[in-house]
Design goal:
single chain, 5-stranded mixed β-sheet, alpha+beta, 21 strands, 17 helices, Dipeptide-binding Protein, domain 3, 21% strand, Dipeptide-binding Protein, domain 1
Length: 536
């Protein structure tokens, strides 16, 4: 009853938003509006503010481009705004040649006077990694793990001419090129930023965006829908649909219903309990790929009793992962032993998933001399492929921990607040979350989640181990893949021993797609690209 009411009300609200765009038709009479049902609202349209999945779909991949990109549906780096690049013999200087005559969006709020130039690249990166830059601190992504790494790594960014950008590094860095393909590395207009600066309206960069991507921004009804139109001067060819709508639809069941009803054409994160039924539903299909992800529970290792590895290990042993896999994921995932997916190079297959051992867990707690134990467990308010039902997961964990004498209080917050609060190094409680790759380099997982420099940021366990830190740094500095693989396997083994966080599963990434959709490619990193998508 409740789901039905939500479905009807959301349909009525979004139908009004759809009306204008859906009346646009192609010459052969087909409706020319692609509708994507998103699980959450974008947190911003400035790519340098937040790196979460909903923002990636609504901003990074729709409105913007990066110097380099990933081949759609794959993991190979290809050219983006940079037509080519070269690397010096010492691997410390990267030179990028920009494509000529790439245009920024022309909108009612901004009329560009020039194409993309090196000035825009310098502005886009300096505002995130140069603490002396006037715009530094205006964006949350400056605290994001990979950007923290770039801030420490880059000694200078130079522009010898309008179409050349040179990055000078303090030391060789194997992950550097991949980091430039991240959503937060998107290029924005320095000219537009100067215009906003002049009128004291910097915030409009995040609310009235201007990019170079395949779609231009039209408007946003908060928590309802975002509307776009195809950018006719897009350097890689005009999008195959004239209009795009991102409809905010938090409920899993409602999203699937809307695809079946023809109101949406693409919808992520179906409930695992529905996948088999959806696959046999006429008019739709479920596309899946092994995701580059894992789900986890992060302790705050700076607080008692979780500063004691025996307590962390006891909690890990108490959790029945197999029961969780069946109840939450319904076979749409595999158990994880380490904080990295098995389809990523450098994965340590020698580490085994911990056994469910409540009696052993009770003995470990007794040896730690800590009882009774009370803890807060944070439950995500949104669905993700790595965690499609966080509340159910939290309830299962609470029951398992109760059996060994740990009392659990389940708490949650609005998604943006949840992400922000989880980074507080004084946070009370263990956080349920997950990680989806930004890049296909193992450094993205281990550095982001475990480096000492990311404590209080993306290192949610606040765990700092100098030996691990050195191995991560040594791996990044090496150009020998075999050396890097050995070091990453050692890092994973140490993490499995110390358990600053408890890995749960590596999940399949599934998307519900209407049979009318042509050209959509499901991405292992959970991204959504709409440029080459059309409706039959």
């Amino acid at each position: 009853m409740c789901v039905s009411r939500i479905f009807i009300s959301m349909s009525m609200i979004v139908a009004a938003v759809f009306l204008t765009a859906s009346q646009t038709a192609t010459a052969d009479g087909r409706r020319d509006t692609l509708v994507y049902c998103s699980e959450a609202s974008p947190r911003s349209f400035d790519p340098a503010i937040y790196p979460d999945g909903a923002t990636m779909a609504a901003a990074h991949l729709t409105l913007y481009n990066r110097l380099v990109d990933y081949q759609p549906g794959g993991t190979k780096l290809v050219s983006g705004l940079a037509a080519s690049w070269s690397v010096s013999a010492d691997h410390k200087t990267y030179t990028f040649k920009l494509r000529p005559d790439v245009q920024f969006h022309t909108t009612p709020w901004f009329k560009p006077s020039r194409p993309v130039s090196a000035e825009d690249v310098l502005f886009s990166f300096r505002r995130q990694i140069d603490e002396t830059h006037p715009w530094y601190g205006e964006n949350e992504a400056a605290k994001y793990g990979p950007m923290v790494s770039l801030r420490e790594l880059v000694s200078a960014i130079e522009a010898p001419d309008k179409l050349t950008v040179v990055f000078r590094l303090k030391r060789p860095s194997a992950p550097f090129l991949a980091d430039l393909a991240m959503g937060v590395s998107s290029i924005v207009s320095a000219e537009y930023a100067a215009q906003l600066d002049a009128k004291g309206a910097r915030g409009e960069l995040a609310t009235w965006p201007v990019g170079t991507g395949p779609f231009t921004f039209v408007d946003y009804q908060k928590d309802v829908a975002v509307r776009y139109k195809a950018f006719g001067e897009y350097w890689d060819g005009k999008a195959r649909t004239n209009n795009l709508i991102i409809a905010i639809t938090p409920e899993q069941t409602v999203r699937a219903q809307r695809v079946m009803a023809g109101e949406c054409h693409i919808s992520p994160y179906p409930s695992p309990t529905q996948v088999d039924a959806l696959k046999s539903t006429p008019g739709i299909r479920v596309e899946s790929v092994a995701g580059l992800n894992f789900s986890y529970m992060a302790f705050n290792t700076r607080q008692q009793p979780f500063d004691d590895v025996r307590v962390r290990r006891a909690v890990s042993m108490a959790i029945d992962r197999q029961a969780m896999l069946e109840a939450v994921y319904h076979s749409q995932a595999s158990l994880a032993a380490v904080p990295m997916p098995p389809n990523l190079w450098g994965y340590n297959s020698a580490v085994e998933v911990p056994l469910h051992d409540p009696e052993g867990a009770r003995k470990l707690l007794a040896s730690a001399g800590i009882e009774p134990v009370k803890m807060k467990l944070w439950s995500m308010p949104v669905q993700r492929d790595y965690n499609p039902n966080s509340r159910r997961m939290a309830e299962l964990i609470a029951a398992d921990l109760s059996a060994i004498g740990i009392e659990v209080e389940i708490v949650s917050f609005e998604w943006g607040e949840y992400l922000q609060r989880s980074k507080d190094s004084n946070r009370d409680g263990a956080v349920l979350l997950g990680f989806i790759a930004d890049t296909v380099d193992p450094d993205n997982f281990v550095s982001t989640l475990f480096s000492c420099k990311n404590v209080g940021g993306t290192n949610l366990s606040n765990w700092c181990d100098r030996e691990v830190d050195k191995m991560i740094a040594d791996a990044a500095a090496s150009s020998d893949r075999s050396v890097r693989e050995r070091l990453y396997r050692s890092v994973q083994a140490k993490i499995a021993s110390e358990l600053p966080l408890v890995p749960f599963v590596n999940a399949t990434f599934s998307v519900v797609v209407s049979d009318r959709v042509d050209g959509y490619v499901v991405e292992p990193m959970g991204w959504h690209r709409f440029h080459k998508v059309s409706l039959k």
